[in-house]
Amino acid sequence: MKSFENFEYFTPTKVIFGKNAEQEIGTLIKTFGAKKVLIHYGGGSVTKSGLLDRVCASLTEAGIAYITLGGVVPNPRLSKVHEGINLCRREQADFILAVGGGSVIDSAKAIGYGVANDGDVWDFYEKKRTASACLPIGAILTIAAAGSEMSNSSVITNENGWLKRGYSNNLSRCKFAIMNPELTYTLPDYQTQSGCVDIMMHTLERYLNQSGNMEMTDGISETLLRTVMKNAKILKTDPNNYEARAEVMWAGSLSHNGLTGCGTDGGDWASHQLEHELGGMFDVAHGAGLAAVWGSWARYVFHDRIDRFAKLAANVLMLTPTDDPTQNALAGIEAMEAYFHSVGMPTSIHDLGIDLSEEQIMTLADKCSFGCTRTIGIVRKLDTEDIANIYRMAK
C-alpha cells in the first residue's frame, strides 16, 4: 500500500458566491479585457427564468458585445461543440461565458480548445494530442453537480459511435465561477438528486483508492459526503431551502477541484468509466447512471480494499463496526444503496428503465476498454471481462 504521496494543488478559479452574485457579470468580464463574448447555455430554463436577459443586459451596460449559442443537452454533443467553434471564429469571440451546469461548461471548454487550436478538437478527447491553448472561460452555475466550474476536466459525446470521452487540461479551468444557490431553486427533484450523487461520486472515486490513510484529506472527504447526503434529503421536501442549496453547491465545487484527492494516487474512477458508456449509449443522467453501477462495482472489487470500504461505512454512513471487515464493507455498500433509493436514485441499470441484452453488455465493455486495449480502475484493475461482469451484475 502506498503512503501519503507528493501532490500539486492548483485552483486558479475565482469564486463569487451568494445571492445576486450574477448581477455584476458585465463588470467582471470587462476585467479580463474581453471584447466579444459567446454566451453558451442549454435549454429553456435560462431563458424562462430571465437569467439570460439579465446577463445580456449586464454585458451591454459594460459595453461588451456578445453572441449566443443555446441548445446544449445533458451529455453534451460534439456537433454542438463544432457549431460553437465555427461561430466563435466567424464572430471573432475572445471569451466564452457558460451559463448552466456541467454539460454547458464542458461544452464551453471543448469550444475553447477548438477555437484556440488547429485540427479536430475530438483529437484531444481521443488522447491523440494535447491542447496548447484554450479561449478564456467563465461560468454562471445553475446546477450543482459536475464541479466543472472549478475542475480541469470536460466530457463530450461524439454522435459518431456515441462515444463519451473526457479530457483534462488546466488550460480550460474557468477564470471565474459565479455561484448563486437561488439559481438552482427551479430544478426538478430528480435533477437535483442526480446532481447530488454526481458530487458524492467525485469524492468517492478519490476516497476509494490504493493509497495510505490521509487523515486531513479523508476528513474533508468524509465531511463533504455526509454534508451532501444530509442536505440532499432536506431538498427532497424543501427545494427552496437556501442553506441546503448553498451547502450542496459549494460541495460540488470542492468535490472536483482536486481537494479531496490531495495526497492520494488520484482514486479509482472505474464507476465513471462504466457510466460514460451507459451515458453514451442510452443518454442517461450522469449522476443517476453512477448510482446504478456503483454498488455492483463496489461488490466486485471491495475485497481488494476492505479497509477503505469499512472506513466509509463507519465514518460516512455511521455504521457500528463489527469484528468482521467483510461484513463491515458489505454493510456500507448496502447502506449507500439504501441512501440512493431514499432520494429516488436507481441502484441498477434496470432501475433506469433499461433492459440490457448480452450483446449490449459486450458492446459497452468493448467501448469501455477501448477495444480491449486498456484496463480501468485502481482499487482493482478491470479488463474487458471484468467490465462485462460488472455490467451483468448491475443489469
From TrEMBL:
Single GO MF descriptor: metal ion binding
Residue stretches making up the Alcohol dehydrogenase iron-type/glycerol dehydrogenase GldA domain: 12-181
Record's protein name: Iron-containing alcohol dehydrogenase
Keywords: Oxidoreductase
InterPro entries membership: ADH_Fe/GldA, ADH_Fe_C, ADH_Fe_CS, BDH-like
Keyword Chloroplast found: no
Alphabetical list of Gene3D superfamilies matching this protein: 3.40.50.1970, Dehydroquinate synthase-like - alpha domain
Superkingdom assignment: Bacteria
GO cellular component, one term: cytosol
Domain Fe-containing alcohol dehydrogenase-like C-terminal: 194-394
